[in-house]
Amino acid sequence: MQILIFFDVMATRTMATLDAIDRRLLAELQAEGRVTNVELAQRVGLTAPPCLRRVRALEDEGVIRGYHADLDAAKLGFSITVFALVSLKSQAEESLRQFEDHMRGLPEVRECHMLNGEIDFILKIVSRDLQSFQEFLTSKLTPAPNVASVKTSLTIRTAKQVPGVPLEE
């Protein structure tokens, strides 16, 4: 039996391997995802065709994962943002996977991060109001697979909320 392993060098690009133009492209797109290719090319000092090729390459490599609108949660009726610290009964891989799969199915859970230390996961949850959050907490989060405990903190205000990563040259 012969096993072939293909290694995609481009899939392993890191910030260190991106050139200055790639970093500028990423910074511009991160700041304004709806910029036209022509405008983007002008901003980074390229003509439109090579600009588009570079952007497509960054998309194909997974450096650019997608484009999203930044929505105002409060204006859409989601006035509550809560962070939940979740501890699980078991940290076995299958238990972790079941919990993560359950969280992916809950639209109120906007972020789910596994942590090291005492707490297993931190969740960012949006809700319409306190009553809706309480219902979510008791009917969907605490009975989730393998949950041992949940500690929640309601966001009072947000001083900074910046998507993406810092792209400095």
TrEMBL record:
CC per GO annotation: cytosol
Highest taxon in the source lineage: Bacteria
SMART domains, alphabetized: HTH_ASNC
The keyword Coiled coil is annotated on this UniProt entry: no
Gene Ontology biological-process annotations: regulation of DNA-templated transcription; response to amino acid
Boundaries of every HTH asnC-type domain copy: 18-79
Tagged with keyword Transit peptide: no
InterPro entries: ArsR-like_HTH, AsnC-type_HTH_dom, Dimeric_a/b-barrel, Tscrpt_reg_AsnC-like, Tscrpt_reg_AsnC/Lrp_C, Tscrpt_reg_HTH_AsnC-type_CS, WH-like_DNA-bd_sf, WH_DNA-bd_sf
Residues of the signal peptide: none
Keywords on record: DNA-binding, Transcription, Transcription regulation
Name of the protein in its database record: AsnC family transcriptional regulator
Pfam families in alphabetical order: AsnC_trans_reg, HTH_24
MF terms in GO: sequence-specific DNA binding
